[in-house]
Amino acid sequence: MPVPRPPVEASKPAPEAGSGEPAPEKPVQGPPAPATQTEKPEPPPPPPPIPEEDAAAVAACLTELRSAGAVVKEAPRIDPENGCGIARPVVVGQLASDIEIKPEATLRCETALQLQRWTRDAVIPAIKAATPQKRLVALNQASAYVCRNRNNEPNGKLSEHALGNAVDIAGFTYSDGSRLAIAPREKDATIEGALQRAVVASACLYFTTVLDPGSDAAHETHLHLDVKKRTNGYRYCW
Length: 238
Ligand SMILES: [Zn+2]
Prior knowledge:
Strand content: 15-25%
Structural class: alpha+beta
Number of strands: 8
Order of helices and strands: HEEEHEEEHEE
Helix content: 10-25%
Shape: globular
Largest sheet: 8 strands, mixed
Mean pLDDT: 87
Bound molecules: zinc ion
CATH topology: Muramoyl-pentapeptide Carboxypeptidase, domain 2
């Protein structure tokens, strides 16, 4: 049986001043156009330029990454002039001599370095404690640099992914080919649950934003990690 459709509203008159109905919201756009001219929405103001990066800081970052065994190359500036971009992007294929990042990730160097530090100093020891017979061989990334808004919404704030500040981790691959996939594990009583909770908690020491399956429905299958700078070093990790 067909579902009855709501009455068509096309014949409804437009709300007028004093009719009691709120007028549709109009953005503030400077002086009003002459009444005779057809009203056209003005284009939004141009987005701010992408943040520049200090060449010496990036060079030091690359040195630290490489000295810890990372395979990383510099890439040309990304600047589509729409608010997205990275002044000095790096492409990371391996975080250490025996740990790949799959697929390779385009990021700001700082993001790659924090990912390496977290993996080496927190993730590997946690895996060793949880499953000593397994060895980490790859991080599975689900998103690195991409020009988009937060949660892929058409209108809204630019994602930290669009500035190279963020990386999404979907899972960890072990030398035997098995994998710990990020999943809702808040009440998971297994060692995998304990391991995921441990690596998520430690991530807040390296990243200023950590979103996991407990954060919201958009992060059920991955961790969002970013290095966004906030006032007073504030961190968002729950
Ligand atoms: Zn993300």
